[in-house]
Design brief:
Elements: E1 2-5, E2 8-11, E3 31-34, E4 38-39, E5 42-43, E6 50-52, E7 62-69, E8 72-78, E9 90-97, E10 108-111, E11 116-119, E12 127-135, E13 147-150, E14 158-165, E15 170-176, H1 182-186, E16 191-199, E17 206-209, E18 215-218, E19 226-235, E20 247-250, E21 261-262, E22 279-281, E23 284-316, E24 321-326, E25 331-356, E26 379-382, E27 385-388, E28 396-398, E29 405-408, E30 417-421, E31 426-428
Antiparallel strand pairs: 1-2, 1-3, 3-6, 4-5, 7-8, 8-11, 9-10, 9-12, 12-13, 14-15, 15-18, 16-17, 16-19, 19-20, 21-25, 22-23, 23-24, 23-25, 26-27, 26-29, 28-31, 29-30
């Protein structure tokens, strides 16, 4: 038996049979042969030349890789180094759960031109393993390298809550709507951070923060403004879950101001916070703002007139905050507070005239009236509503938008006013 190679006959074996098995050949490489016969007279001529390409299984696919997407496991691989002497006709993908065995007859196929596959039947949080084989016209290759990954998806929906609202802050927190169902909430992978979106019109939202804990305090807010918020979660895969339903809150006014109506000599109050107008603090007559529960106060704003000299001491006992501001020019003053207070005391010193808002009206709501200081001799009554008069007969200006009847009881000087018709602004002593 001769191998015919490069126009030469190369002896490889002799046999008394009419067949011969040539082994250890390279698959896919053409081999050509000729034979001769030998008797007692010698060797005969070469036979015709016969050629054939040996067939074998392909080598396994190369570099199998896996990546995790939203509800999908993506595979990709490279072609085998050899096709076993016959073109690759398909690839077979074998799937198993981690810790189990690969099925022998259950697999998914792709054509020879496609070297990727997306598996969409995975349960988030479960780990799956894969191998791939190549098959030619004759036989299937051995397994490729194995790859395993935990399936995942985007996180579930969260709900956001407003914990507290001040004048210059909004405190928020959030949680998964189906907590403690871990897989739904996380998508099978840990939450790395959240995305907090904010709007002032409930239509146009913008990302304002990406905290990695489930609460946030938004300090970048203006007072007396409505804000809307939505939250979403982002897991380790970089997948962002759906936005929450919006929540809304309005920041507090957070400032103290009074103007337009005045009581001379001492101090009046702002109506919006419903404070006691006059209170004693450390032995001094003072105006007390009582917020009930602690609130963050950014600043205090007030209007005033001064005589030759005056100043105002401002005290927030909760935060041990004390400051004094000199009032030398009549007008409006803004005093930074920047503290959380349940009460603020304002202690006037010197000749200071403060203003407060007070539309005079017929009402039984005493809290709507602007009151002066305590320990005054006279009392002014409007339709059974009264406030204490100021000392020394200083004038009190009263404005009415419609005729009302007024009875002035005896004042410092002993003068009586009865049945006065207040159809315009009048001043009385």
């Amino acid at each position: 038996v001769y191998r015919y190679l490069n126009n030469q006959y190369i002896f490889i074996a002799s046999t008394t049979n009419t067949s011969y098995l040539h082994t250890n050949l390279q698959a896919g490489l053409e081999y050509c042969y000729a034979v001769t016969g030998i008797n007692s007279s010698g060797e005969g001529p070469y036979s015709n030349i016969a050629c054939e390409i040996p067939k074998d299984a392909p080598s396994p696919p190369q570099s199998l890789n896996i990546s995790v997407g939203d509800g999908v496991l993506n595979l990709s691989w490279q072609a085998p180094i050899t096709d076993g002497g016959s073109p690759i006709i398909e690839y077979r993908i074998y799937i198993k759960l981690a810790g189990s065995s690969y099925p022998k007859i259950s697999y998914t196929t792709t054509s020879s031109s496609i070297r990727n596959y997306s598996y969409r039947g995975a349960i988030p949080g479960s780990t799956y393993c894969f191998v791939v084989t190549a098959r030619n016209s004759f036989v299937e290759s051995s397994y490729s390298n194995e790859v395993c990954a935990k399936a995942g998806t985007k996180p579930g929906q969260f709900e956001i809550q407003i914990l507290d609202t001040g004048e210059s802050f909004i405190r928020l927190s959030w949680s998964c709507i189906r907590s403690p169902e871990f897989i739904y909430c996380t998508g099978g992978y840990p939450i790395t951070h959240y995305k907090l979106y904010r709007s002032t019109d409930a239509v146009n939202y913008s990302l304002i923060a990406s905290p990695n804990i489930a609460n946030y305090v938004d300090y970048d807010v203006a007072s007396n403004t409505i804000y809307y918020y939505k939250i979403s979660a982002v897991n380790q895969l970089g997948l962002e879950g759906p936005l929450s339903n919006p929540v809304a809150t309005t920041t507090k006014l957070g400032e103290v101001s009074f103007n337009t109506y005045r009581l001379w000599g001492w101090i009046s109050r702002k109506l919006e916070t419903k404070p006691e107008m006059v209170a004693y603090y450390n032995g001094h007559l003072a105006w007390k703002l009582d917020f009930g529960t602690p609130q963050y106060i950014r600043y205090l704003r007030f209007s005033f007139d001064v005589g030759d000299f005056g100043y105002l001491k401002i005290v927030c006992p909760d935060s041990n905050f004390v400051t004094s501001t000199y009032l030398t020019i009549s007008g409006t003053k803004i005093i930074p507070i920047g503290k959380t207070c349940s009460k603020i005391y304002m202690i006037p010193q010197g000749d200071i005239e403060f203003w407060c808002e007070l539309p005079v009206r017929v009402s039984n709501n005493y809290d709507d009236l602007c009151k002066g200081i305590k320990n005054i001799l006279g009392t002014i009554t409007i339709n059974n509503l009264s406030w204490l008069a100021v000392p020394r007969g200083y004038p009190i200006t009263i404005k009415g938008n419609y005729p009302i009847s007024m009875i002035l009881h005896k004042d410092f000087y002993g003068t009586w006013f009865v049945g006065s018709n207040l159809d315009d602004a009048r001043a009385y002593k």
